[in-house]
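Render Cellulose biosynthesis protein BcsE in 3D.
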Amino acid sequence: MCVVQVPAAALENLEGAHLARWCGQLHDWATAGGHCVLLLCHGEVATLAPRLLPLNRLCAGVAQLYPHRGALQYLVHYWSNAEGVFAHRDFESEWRGFHLHVMADGDGLMAAVLAQEGGDRFLYLAQAQALEGAPPFSPAWRLFDNWSALMAGALQAQAATVVLSIDENADVDALTRIVFHLRSERGNGLKLVVREMQPCLRYADERLLLESGASLVAPSSLPLARFLTLLETIQGQVWQGRLPQDPERLIRLHRPPDVGGIVTPVQFRQLAGELLDQGEGVVESAVLVLQPVAGVSPVQALQQLQMRRRGDFACMHAGQVWLFLFACRSDGIERALGNLFRLPWRELFDGYQRLVGHDVAAMGASEGGVAPPQPRQVPVMAPVAQAPSWTAPRPIRLGGER
C-alpha cells in the first residue's frame, strides 16, 4: 500500500485531459504491480473533487474531510471494489489522539440530501457584482461578469452555490425566469442565492423569486461579511419548494394591477374583491379602514395621501378612508402608512382597522355612484388674513451717510 501526501495546488494546473492521462498511468502502474495507492491531497480541494468524479474508471474512490459547524465531516463521494459501489454518504468524525474515528453514520435525511447532490457542492459560482468588487476568496470561487455568463456555468452544476445580483426592480421578471430555468433544469440540489445590491425588491418580488426556485434572497442592508456567513448556513440544504409549471402565471399573480389612486366606493369594492379572490393567497395584501380624528374631514385626509405604487388605491366611504395596499404584510402596514401620507398618519386618524374579503363585499352601495371630491381642490386650512402694514419689513441703511 502506497500513501502519498500531495498538495492540492500541485494538481490544479493539470488540464482535464492531462489529469485523466496522469490518473490512467497511475492506475495502470498500480494494477500491474498489485499496489493500492492512496493520495492524501491537502489544501483547497473544493475544485478538485468534481474533476475526479468523471474519472471513476481510473480512481477507485473519492472522499473529503472538511469542517462543518464545529465538527469534522467525512464525505464519501463514492468507493468501488469487488463487492460493489458505495456512494453519497456523510459521516461525522472526530480526532482521538492520532486516530480519526467515525462518530455516527449519517442519518436518513443527510443521506437523502447527499443523494441529490453532486461533487461540486463546495463550489461557488457568483456574479462579480455580488462580491462588491472583491477578488475570488479561494479557488472554489468562480466569478462571472453578467447573468448570461453565470447561467452558462450554472447549467453544468449539480449542487454548487450560485449567487446572482440585482439592483433594479425592472429586472425582477427577467431574474425570475433565470432562477426558474436553473431550478427546473438542474434540480433541487443547486443552491440559488439572490443578493440585492440596491433597495429594489418589495415583499411580492422576494416571494416571487423564492417560489420560482431561489434558496435565499439577501437584502441590500446585509454587509458582505454577514452575507458570506449566511451562505454557509445553506450548505447541505435541498430546495423543498414545489416548482410551478408556468413561471409567467406566477409572475402575473405577483404583479400589481394597472390601477392606483383615488377611486369610487363601487370601484374600490370591485377591484379589491377581484384582487383578493384572484390572488389565491400567493401575495398578502391589506385592506384598511381609517377613521379621521375630530376636526379632520375624510376629504382633508385624502388630500394628504400620496400614492406612488401601482396597485394601491383608496376611497372615501361612510365618513372614513378605505385603503387597499397591494403586497403589504401585517408587519409593514404602519411603515407603509408613514410613506403614504405627507403628515404623520397618527395625527390624521384615530387608528386603523384591518378588514378581510367579506368586509369588502359588504360595503354599502349608497355612495357607490358618487365620485369622491378631488382632494387637491379642497384647502387644508383657511387663508391667512392680510398682515397689518406696520408689521411689514423696512430696509435700514447701516453706517456711512446720515
